[in-house]
Amino acid sequence: MGSTQETMEALTRETKCLFGAFEESDRGLALVVAEFFDVTLERLLRARFSSALEKQPKLIKPLFEGFGPLSTFSSKISVSYASDLIQDWMASELHVIRRIRNEFAHSLESKTFLDPKISRMVDNLASLAQAVERIEKTSGWKKGKPKTSDMTTRYKFVMVCVRTGALLQSRVAVLESHGLEEMKRIFTSKPYL
């Protein structure tokens, strides 16, 4: 586990990559976003494994490499959920993002967020309503502005990814901090965080 400064620098660099993906094609956006979450979940799991347990990194590293049990995005989501690092809504969200990534990555045809199947998956993202509600509360956005149904599917996807990404990165920062283990556990178990 690195220093707090190193962690913050890495999280900042990764956030810039996420925001850079918003300039990509639809396919590029889906692929970069999924990789961002894959990397962030790996950081979260490594922080949990190392936190206060003083586990040797050389013994943990193979879990995430090659055919290791945590080498896939799907397995990282499932183990993060099983070990109470993320709540059910976030696990469901990340699995939908993974499926969206797969739709783009495993198609010879050029797909976009206008594709009906992808659009339905985005509309089913659990935190979309929460993200819109938060924006409406903090910015007065509702008055005279478009409704959720008027937003593009790509915009909805970006909103959810920014919110979920920020929450996941805050968990990494907390777990990698030098705070009390009980406080870390309480923070990661909050259903709204």
What order do the helices and strands come in, and which of them pair?
Layout: H1 4-20, H2 26-50, H3 57-60, H4 73-82, H5 88-105, H6 116-123, H7 128-139, H8 153-175, H9 181-189
Describe the structure.
With 193 residues, the protein is mostly helical. It has a single domain, classed as Four Helix Bundle (Hemerythrin (Met), subunit A) (Up-down Bundle), CATH 1.20.120.330. 65% of the residues lie in helices and 0% in strands. It is built from 9 helices and no strands. It has helices spanning 4-20, 26-50, 57-60, 73-82, 88-105, 116-123, 128-139, 153-175, 181-189. Helix 1 packs antiparallel against helix 8 (153-175) and helix 2 (26-50) crosses helix 5. The longest helix is centred in the N-terminal third of the chain and has 25 residues, at 26-50. The protein is globular. It starts with a helix and ends with a helix. The relative contact order is 0.15.
